[in-house]
Amino acid sequence: YMDESMSEFIAAFQRKGMYENTLVILSSDNGGPIYGKGLVGSDQGAANNIPLRGGKLSDWEGGIRVNAFISGGFVPVHQRGTTMDEYMHIADWYATLCDIAGADPVDKKAKEANLPPIDSMNMWPLLSGQKSKGPREEIHLSEHALISGKYKLLTGGGLPQAQFKNITSDIVLFDGYWPGWGNQATIKTFIKWKNCKHGCLYNIIDDPFEKDNLATSEPDLLGKMIARLADLNKSVFRPDRGIETIEACTKWPGYYGPFVE
Questions:
Q1: How do residues 191-201 score in pLDDT, each as one tens digit?
Q2: How far apart are CA 153 and CA 213, in angstroms?
Q3: C-alpha span between 65 and 44 (Å, rounded)
Q4: CA-to-CA distance for 174 and 152, rounded, in angstroms?
Q5: Exposed site from 17, 98, 122, 170, fewest CB < 10 Å?
């Protein structure tokens, strides 16, 4: 379905003579879900991230490291067919597209309200081949996880409260490698967790499958990354969005959304 749909888009751009000025971006938003029945209703995730650990709803590499590519006539000829292994966050598309369009990415209203600045970084010099090194050295994955250089820190994870009311947030779900279907997916979803209360540390360049926890052997680095994560968390924007209510499902035609009484 995806391949066919993309081919129809490309063909339409080509027919209209727009393809040479078109930049096609295709990116996943997260790793594949590997949960079994019971976590999000009766559905199974049905994905497979092996050899990466974990999946969607976790900060393991299987949950955050995704496939992405750019195409189209706007891509410089010398960059076509090349690969990139620099860090890039999906939020970086905002500043990148602003640069291409000649727009200022600064959120002036947010700045006037003393809200944190945008996290997006301009990646077009890297993607276009103007530079060989990207600007991003760290990724603030969540309030529980941080990538800095070649290392990743995990300190827990956000858990669905309906299913894990009595489980501490120090737990990281999906501690292992399995496809998201069948009885084993259901069983492992609820028993394969890792407690990272004191920090779990991995070298995701040399050990992308996150098999070797370096927390004990690298205590100084662990402490520095925990401190850095705490500092970054100070600027997390988490406004009061009210309490969850079923009314949010009834205000819109067939989907869940915000509303104001």
A1: 999 999 999 99
A2: 10
A3: 20
A4: 17
A5: 17
pLDDT tens readout for residues 173-218? 999 999 999 999 999 988 999 999 999 999 999 999 999 999 999 9
For residue 154, which phi and psi values (nearest 5 degrees)? -120, 135
